[in-house]
Input
Amino acid sequence: MWFRSLRIYRLPAGWDMTLDTLEAALARHPLARCGSMDMFSRGWVYPRQEGAFVHTVNRQWLLALGVEQKLLPTTVVRQEAQERAAKIEAEQDRKVGRKELRDLRERVTEELLPRAFTRRRTTWCWIDPVNGWLIIDAGSDARADEFLEVLQQTLEGIALRPLQTQVSPTTAMTDWIAAGDPPAGFTIDRDLELRSASEGQSAIRYVHHALEGDEIRAHIAAGKIAAKLGLTWNDKVSFVLSEKLQIKRLAFLDILKEEAEQSAETADEQFDVDFALMSGELARLLADLTTALGGELKPA
Output
């Protein structure tokens, strides 16, 4: 139970949903198996197998969105449709038009869909009702948007907003690199992406590369800005901060995982210890990162 990519949202001000209310809402939208003619199905699944849709440890909540998706590649559909079109043209001595070819593709899809393999995946979410965070473990905007769409259908009226800070990540990261002076509690790692602010959007990437020296400062002086920067927090958690205030390549260092492994005897205990340790450290990390970026920008 270790998140890898964080999409950071703020719960609505005054959010007072209880654990029982949230559990009941999720229970009304469980994941159902894909029907024979469904391309996908989405719904809530148990984070663990104890029969609860909200797993809670130390007043921290864990949710899991399940997605079943039929695997029917468009190339397979297109190839079968083209073969049928070729047969029609040979047998009837005429050209298959665009509309007829589109109809053939739809017919092929209908025939193959019930026999397609199904893949299931899970998107995790941590809710911290104490500090007002909602964090989605999603490596792409599409995955995060999918989660939010289902959550907003489940909890009608919930208004989430991405974390916004007084200083933009781009401005802060550029200043930290230029001055060689990271904020308190953070160290600069060896990964950096500099991007041109001009329309060309040219980029320079440093991977496992020392970030000191005149070369990088020269790029910044020429107008390039930091779009991504590798950081480590308190010698415990390393990550890459992006210009959109997303945390990627999140890694909990060995000392934390060793501490977790020494505290558990069963798989269920390990799951709870991992979640408690992860949520506790991330809550402190998010607080320090927000401070490093000038504090939170409150909505107007």
